[in-house]
Structure formats: structure tokens, C-alpha cells
Amino acid sequence: MKNLTLFLIPWLILLAGCQSSPTPTSTPNPTSVSSVTSAPTPPSAPPRDLSSLPPISVENAGQVKKLEVLLGHSQPVMSIVFSPGGDMFASSSLDGTIRLWQFPTLTEIALLKHGPNAAGLAFSPDGSLLASGGTDGNIRLWDIATGSERAILGSHSVNSIFGVWGVAFSPDGKMVASASVDDTVRIWDVNGSGELAVLKGHTSDVYGVTFSPDGELLASCSKDFSVRLWDVETWTQLAVLEGHDAEVTGVAFSPDGKLLASAGGGTVENYTVHLWDVDQGTQKAVLMGYTSNVAFGPDGRVLASISVDETVRLWNVSSKAELAILKGPERGSHGLSFSPDGRLLVSGGADGTVWLWGVEQP
Q1: Is the dihedral of CA 214, 218, 219, 220 positive or negative?
Q2: 30 occurs within a structural domain
Q3: Residue 15 pLDDT > 70, yes or no?
Q4: Are 168 and 177 in contact (CB under 8 A)?
Q5: Domain containing 163 — which CATH number?
Q6: Rounded to an integer, what distance in angstroms lies between the CA atom of residue 38 and that of residue 325?
Q7: Does some domain include residue 219?
Q8: Using CA atoms, how far apart are residues 186 and 172, in angstroms rounded to an integer?
Q9: How many C-beta atoms surround the C-beta of residue 85 within 10 A?
Q10: Strands 322-327 and 311-316, how do they pair?
Q11: Which SS3 state, helix, strand or coil, does residue 33 take?
Q12: To the nearest 10°, the Cα dihedral for 147, 149, 155, 157?
């Protein structure tokens, strides 16, 4: 894996390898696009009481371990997101499905069919909607209460396995931003008024997009090695953050909005996480470790990164020290998310598995 020079090359090899793997039979795949079925798939053994876990912190990061592995997807897991209330999380996969998992029971409560491949995911701030993107270029909106597709907000003109890589809701829930391999970020009205803006500036595929917690900024990252900041009121480009020396595949704001973390870049052996001062638009630190995506814990003190080198790493945001290296699924993945209360970290595998991490009390 480490002798490959670009992030997408390992991913394409992973996909090819996974296509020969047997499809898990615990959950049937739907046969039509945009379909939904109820598909409970409880773990094979009685689950732990995950509701009583302590939050993952700087102090206990060294005690984090694998708690559960969930089966269902048959291809790489591209995105994992928790609902704002923390009562469920969603996972998307290149098998074309989106699975909703109830927490803390870990029961699979719904199976959504986005299309040929599903990638980006985002819950609305009130948890009532889920946005998804995928190969077909469509941005689909799902009603969580009914498990049905509510609308197709719009589409990027793409025909790629990674079509729409990332999606994000604005903090007020009125807009969805989408990042695509057509080199653009597009802004959509959730209430059906169509495309609000097309943000052009990146010179290659755009992989990630996220709003700042106050909703005033939008950050995007790209194969062109850059991270860009956009003004949400005017949709003008405010800054180009440069420092990565290869494509940037993940981006996340800290909970207070003062820091921005970006994943990717670096050399083949040492892809990196960069930390940026949002107000100054300057680089604060570079964390060394092969990585493809990042997620801040809810208290902003712990940062998690995930990589195709089969690891999940935990970092002390203040000291920039590496707190723990967690051995993840074979061939790694991109999906990564903390629960809103910080008690659980969920990551996805290129083998289609979903891994749950936490500090189990004696």
C-alpha cells in the first residue's frame, strides 16, 4: 500500500479486491434505486451496554479499544455520521447502500439505496433528514422518520466512482453543500429551490466540504493539494490554505470553529494531518501519520484520523502529541465519526465493516 503515490489508487485497488469478497447475507440488498427496507440485524452476541461508556478524552485515550464490529456492507465504507441526538448513526458504502444503525442497541433499522455507489453523508441539524451523494452525481435527501427519499436536490455532471464525495448541512439546516470530482462545490436549497451557488476555484476533484459551527464559513479540500475557505453570505473565496504536497481528502472544523483540520498530503510514507488557524489562515501544526480523514471529538481536545494503512490515530489537539494508534480493519477506510457525547468513535473498513471504539469500564 505504501508504495502507491496517490490516495485514489489505493482506493481503486481496495474496491477491486472487495468485489471478489462474498457479500454478507445478514441483510438483503434492495433491488431498486432509492428503495428502503426495514432490516434489523442485531450483533451475533449480546451487546455491551455502550450507553454507560465514559467520553473519550486526552486522559483515557490510551484505553480506547475495539468494542464491536458491525457487518452488512459488502464494499468499502465511505462515510459515517451520527445524528445530532446521538440515537443513531448512518454508514454509506460503495455497495450503493446507506445503513441506519440504532444506538446503543446497534440494531440496523433501515437500508437505503442511493445508487451504484454511496459516498458522502450528512444529517440535518434537527436530525430529521439525511443527505447523501454518490457516483450518479445526485444529492438525495432522505426522511428519517419514514425512511423514504424526500427529494433529489440536484446533480453534479459526473460519471465517476467517487462522483459526489462529500456533503454537509449548514448549521441552520437550510442548505446542503456538495463536493464533487467535477472540481466544484455546489450549494443547494433544502426546501427545493434548486442550486443556490456554484463555487469554483479548485483545479481538480473536490473531496470534502464542511460548514463552520457558526455557519459563516465553508471549507473544502481537493486533489489540487489545497484547502479553501468560502464566505457563506457572498460565496466568495476568502483563503487558499496551502501546505499539503498531495491531494487533501478530509476536512473538519473544531467545535469552537477556531481550528480546521485537513487530512491527506505529505509523502507516500507519511500522509499528514494539518491544523490551521481559521482567523489567521495560517498553519499551526503538522501531525505525521498516514491519513485520509479526520474528526474532532465534541470537546475539541481530541482529534481522530483514519487511514488506508489500517489504523485509527488519536491526537492531543493542544500538545499535538499522538495519544493512541488503534489497529483497524484490513485495508483501512475513510469513514470516521465521534458520537455527539464523545463516548464512541465509529470507523469504517474497506472490507465493508463498521468498527466501534471506546473506553470500556471494568
Answers
A1: positive
A2: yes
A3: no
A4: yes
A5: 2.130.10.10
A6: 36
A7: yes
A8: 17
A9: 11
A10: antiparallel
A11: coil
A12: 80
In which domain, by residue range, is 239 found?
Answer: 8-358
Q: Is 243 helix (H, G, I), strand (E, B) or coil?
A: coil
Q: How far is residue 208 from each of residues 59, 122, 162, 229, 263, measured CA to CA in Å?
A: 30, 12, 11, 12, 10
Give strand pairing partners of 341. Answer: none
Residue 1 lies in a domain: no
Do residues 48 and 67 touch, judged by C-beta distance below 8 A? yes
What's the CA gap between 186 and 168, in Å, rounded?
11
Residue positions counted in the chain: 362
Residue 191, SS3 per DSSP: coil
* pLDDT tens column, 139-197: 999 999 999 999 999 888 765 556 888 999 999 999 999 999 889 999 999 998 889 99
Between 267 and 19, residue with greater pLDDT? 267
Q: How far apart are CA 232 and CA 22, in angstroms?
A: 45
Residue 3 placed within a domain: no
Q: Which three cell numbers stand for residue 146?
A: 419514514
Residue 278 identity (one-letter amino acid): V
| Share above pLDDT 70 across residues of the chain, in percent, rounded to a whole number | 83
Segment holding 13, helix H or strand E: helix 8-18
| Dist. CA 317–CA 212, nearest whole Å | 18
3-state class (DSSP) for residue 5: coil
Interacting residues of 349 by C-beta distance below 8 A, sequence separation 6+? 76, 77, 328, 329, 330, 331, 332, 333, 355
Contacts of 17 (CB under 8 A, 6+ apart): 331, 350
**Residue for grid cell 467545535:** 255
Distance of alpha carbon 260 from alpha carbon 274, whole angstroms: 8
Omega cis (within 30) before 116: no
**Model confidence pLDDT, tens digit, residues 109-122:** 999 998 778 889 99
Which CA distances in Å does 271 have to 10, 71, 203, 223, 292? 13, 29, 21, 14, 8
* Secondary-structure breakdown of the chain: helix, strand, coil percentages, each rounded to the nearest 5: 5, 45, 50
Per the structure, how many domains does the chain have?
1
**For residue 79, which of 88, 92, 66 has the smallest C-alpha distance?**
92
- Residue 202 and residue 10: Cα distance in Å, rounded? 23
Q: What is the pTM of this model?
A: 0.86
